[in-house]
């Protein structure tokens, strides 16, 4: 057990805040506007990004204050794991909560903080600023990438 990495030997609730934060691969997919079918709970991603997402490095430009600046920004916690169905299928939070392995391109496995971008798994250079799209037009921006 001592040779297992923290995400294999700890539950999400047992992780330190530093371990929890390190699970984020920096893909930026969770910061895309999403639409949900109320009948089926199916989530559809758009190519429209939150106003705080840096489109190049896929990180929040004001992470400590994001919740105060963006009213519908969700702060993930281990207690919310049962609701992680809306996160991308490649998201470490969702994968670990389901008892699955991290993808081989994840920075925790590669040691390279840019491995998500190099693997083409981030939204870098693929998204629009939310200011450029009317809320009523979001359906026209649904994407069909691997999310």
Automatic annotation (TrEMBL):
Family of the protein in this entry: Belongs to the UPF0260 family.
Protein name in the entry: UPF0260 protein SCD92_02225
InterPro entries, per the entry: Puta_zinc/iron-chelating_dom, UCP006173
PANTHER family attached to this UniProt entry: UPF0260 PROTEIN YCGN (PTHR37421:SF1)
Source organism (scientific name): Gilvimarinus gilvus
């Amino acid at each position: 057990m001592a040779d297992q990495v923290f995400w294999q030997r700890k539950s999400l609730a047992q992780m330190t805040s530093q371990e929890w934060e390190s699970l984020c691969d920096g893909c930026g997919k969770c910061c895309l506007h999403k639409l949900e079918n109320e009948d089926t709970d199916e989530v559809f991603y758009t190519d429209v990004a939150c106003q705080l997402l840096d489109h190049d490095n896929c990180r929040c430009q004001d992470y400590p204050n994001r919740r105060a600046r963006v009213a519908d920004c969700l702060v993930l916690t281990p207690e919310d794991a049962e609701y992680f169905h809306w996160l991308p299928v490649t998201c470490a939070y969702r994968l670990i909560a389901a008892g699955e392995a991290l993808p081989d391109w994840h920075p925790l496995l590669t040691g390279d903080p840019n491995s998500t971008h190099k693997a083409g798994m981030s939204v870098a250079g693929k998204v629009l600023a939310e200011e450029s799209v009317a809320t009523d037009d979001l359906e026209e921006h649904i994407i069909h990438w691997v999310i």
